[in-house]
Design brief:
This protein has 14 helices and 8 strands. It is of the alpha+beta class. The strands form 2 sheets. The protein has a 4-stranded antiparallel sheet with strand order 1-2-7-4, covered by helices on one side. The protein has a 4-stranded antiparallel sheet with strand order 5-6-3-8, with no helix packed on it. It is elongated and about 110 Å long. The two termini are 56 Å apart.
């Protein structure tokens, strides 16, 4: 008998030549997607972090450059080509500024040139050197022309070539934390953060609760169920600008139907400015958030409820369980997974919400959230750096929330 051959050890998973080739093929197929995601997500995120530590305003988005305007002044034998030069930046130096132009045929220099200019043939060159921030200068070139009319047209049609180099604040090595210091200085930021958390938490929880209640109502078969489901989706699919202005008209303090109804019922003595006073404005925008986005929760929860095995409910009926007991002990454990995912998504989306609040109140009357603050800092105050700093704070808040969610909540739900 031949002795038993020892068994060859199985190579570790993924180390065989075939597995390596499959891995390389998989990475090559995923490379376009990874590159696209990096370009769409990572690069803008890096740009926001970069701008947040830059002393950049709205005017600094365009790099400083010398601007020249050319025209012809005078008449007869006293013609003058005037070049008006200015620095487009108010605080950035432009070095090596030169102006080059070609005089058209029939035009000659007839007098003394400025010290910085010289003419070789028909080529005019002026070397101005450095232009300080906000600086303006003017050069006058005396000329004579054989045909005054055609000469003026030829001169004004030709564009002078201007060169100069200025440091762009976006690409320079100047960094500052003044943007973050300005954000955290005083109580304004913490008030805005509190408004954001109130709007986000109550808007998210309210949308989930209303969506769960709507799903419970439509989980049973009855005539007209499909029509009612379609009506439930209206707030979510309707254009946000249309529904926002509908709410503004409905709750207008002078001509709104809501105030007219409250006054006729005797519930109030005078009209209520729902979107113009504290704290009604914050409560109303939160209610609007709940009303507009509960259909999304309703769809997901209803789909999950209809996938639950009905045998459990039949057994509970035989045991005499009440409707509340069936909901609490049977439905809720089955819905915790989808409720957790919806809470995560809705929290992130609501925290980033801008258009709803901006259309309803413009961030006034105590409804200024962090995203509205980003807009106001960047465009209303023209401080792009401060706006980017607020956007970085928003990102860090959402990153912290996501970490805590996956660290604690999702572990408990088995996600």
């Amino acid at each position: 008998m031949h002795p038993a051959q020892p068994m060859q050890p199985t190579p570790p998973l993924g180390t065989t030549p075939l597995a390596k080739r499959e891995a390389r093929l998989a990475w090559s197929l995923l490379a376009p997607t990874i590159i696209s995601v990096a370009l769409v997500v990572v690069l803008p995120l890096f740009a926001i972090f970069w701008i947040s530590v830059k002393p950049v305003s709205l005017a600094d988005l365009r790099p400083p450059a010398p601007i020249v305007r050319e025209d012809v002044r005078g008449s007869g034998d006293e013609l003058t080509i005037r070049y008006r030069i200015r620095n487009s930046s108010q605080d950035r130096l432009i070095s090596g500024v030169t102006i080059s132009d070609t005089l058209p045929g029939g035009v000659q220099v007839s007098g003394a040139l400025p010290e910085v200019c010289r003419v070789e043939g028909n080529a005019l060159t002026c070397i101005l050197g450095d232009l300080e921030g906000g600086a303006r200068d003017q050069l006058n070139i005396p000329i004579s022309a054989d045909d005054e009319g055609s000469a003026e047209e030829s001169i004004e049609e030709s564009e002078p070539i201007v060169t100069g180099k200025g440091d762009n604040v976006l690409t320079s090595g100047d960094f500052t934390f003044e943007n973050f210091a300005r954000i955290f200085d005083g109580d304004e930021f913490w008030g805005v953060l509190g408004v954001t958390l109130f709007y986000t938490v109550f808007g998210t929880v309210g949308a989930l609760v209303v969506g769960l209640f709507a799903a419970l109502l439509l989980n049973k078969e009855f005539p007209g169920q499909g029509i009612l489901r379609g009506l439930y989706l209206f707030p979510y699919v309707a254009p946000v600008i249309a529904v926002a202005f509908s709410w503004l008209i409905l709750f207008d303090p002078f001509s709104g139907s809501a105030n007219a109804l409250l006054l006729q019922m005797g519930a109030v003595d005078e009209s209520i400015n729902f979107f113009g006073e504290r704290p009604q404005a914050l409560i109303m925008v939160t209610v609007f958030e709940i009303w507009r986005y509960f259909p999304l929760s309703f769809l997901f929860i209803l789909a999950r409820m209809q996938s639950i095995d009905t045998d459990m409910y039949e057994a509970a009926d035989m045991d005499g369980a009440s409707p509340f007991q069936k909901f609490w002990y049977l439905s809720v454990p089955q819905l915790l997974g989808i409720l957790s995912v919806l809470f995560l998504l809705r929290f992130i989306w609501t925290f980033n919400k801008f258009d709803d609040i901006f259309l309803l109140t413009g961030g006034n009357a105590g409804t200024r959230t962090l995203t509205v603050n980003v807009y106001e800092q960047a465009f209303a105050v023209s401080n792009i750096g401060a706006g980017a700093a607020v956007a970085v704070v928003v990102f860090c808040c959402l990153l912290t929330f996501s970490f805590l969610f996956f660290r604690f909540i999702s572990r408990e739900e088995g996600l």
